[in-house]
Amino acid sequence: MTDPFAALAAYPRLLVCSDVDSTFIGQEVIELIARRAGTEAEVAAVTAAAMRGELDFAASLRARVATLAGLPVAVLAEVRKEVTLTPGVPELLRWAAEHGHVVALVSGGFHEVIDPLAATLGIRHVRANRLAVRDGLLTGEVDGPIIDRAGKAVALRQFAAVEDIPLSATIAIGDGANDLDMLALAGLSVAFAAKPVVAERADIALPGPRLDDLLPLLELARG
Length: 223
Description:
The protein is of the alpha/beta class. Helix content is 42%, strand content 18%.
């Protein structure tokens, strides 16, 4: 059986592309927003089904976002304060910085919450969805193309091209069915606290709760 880490040892510079909700952070942002709309339980059930691969992601996202219509955009500032990094993320970022690697984020969540977080962490590459706003209120729609399963793979490919890093030197980390195309494209695919459909297809499955459990495996492979 081929060592999934072996090919990475040939590259001095890697791109680590991580899903955000329930992977890079400990929450599902859309559920935090839905709590303000009184639709958290409904939204959480749809999210779980989508992550298991039982629903089309784009359609499920539109349905969940529709429940947010009428919320003041100011609730997003409240939500940002509730977001917490997954244990091990600071260590992963420090390792990447020390070795000259690049960390990118790609999400079925929302730029409005992820961008400020990424900026504080020095992460330059972010791809996510945007919430439509009119007169200071969420309209219940997504603004622009939806970043779904295929969109995440496109983002990984584009981030790698911008950084001049071959796809074989990329690591993709995710937990849900909408991460599968990105994981399949990457040089190394990592399922983190993932749904069974993801864990069974990834090169390696980490149970959590720490994201930096990946680092000893990478260091061992790279000597």
